[in-house]
Amino acid sequence: MSEDKKMEETGISRRQVLIGTGALAASTALMQFGGLLRSAQATGGTTEKWPWPYEKLDPAKTAQLAYDEWYRVFCGAAVINSVVSQLREKIGEPYKSFPSDAFVFLEGGIAGWGTVCGSNAGANVVSNLIIGPRIAGKDCEHGHSIGSGMMEWYSETALPVFEPKEPKQPTKIVQTTSKSPLCHISVGKWMKASGFALGSPERKDRCARVAASVAYKLVEDLNAWKDGKYESTTDWAPGKDLGITAQMNCEECHTKDVPSPPMAKK
If you average pLDDT over every residue of the chain, what do you get? Predict the structure, then answer.
């Protein structure tokens, strides 16, 4: 006898069975979710609210972690993991629940599109986790300043600065100054100066060292903030000054086609 026939004889419809199965699954999921919430509450952790606590870290150790992590999850997630992995050990929750590896998409200037360098994006994620977003009020402005300052530092510094004790690629890695926070410009200028292609071991090691350099600088800034000694290194405010979000060096990509927004009346 078919399953449908059996259900007809017992007065149970397939729809009722499906509803019952769905209800059971939903009930089970809710019980599991409730358990996770109780576990987080018991340990004092939550991933819903921030800023999160911070304890000072060793910049050199963090840089080495970022360098090694680049070869696993690339630039953005490497910077994030270099900090978050240590805070998991020092603090526990909410860092234990933070899915750092999910930020692997920052690789290649976000999904390979060559926009903002993943290292810069990763540094902004971390500074906002720890200090909070600028929209939360004046007390959180340092988080925005650290992120914005990182973009400027990245643009104006001959990178990479970090030199691993045991490099995965022994070839000397030349330094270049991008004048831009963009992956496309930063990597492109380095490739032109070095002569190495995108897929070369040398280019990969260069980007691993750049991520490590950013992680080092990020922890230096966070440590200074923790000590109450951080001072913003940038006053770049394009929205206020130009009337449009922008970077400092638009002409790397644009020529006469730089958009000119209507300025607000003063």
Answer: 82
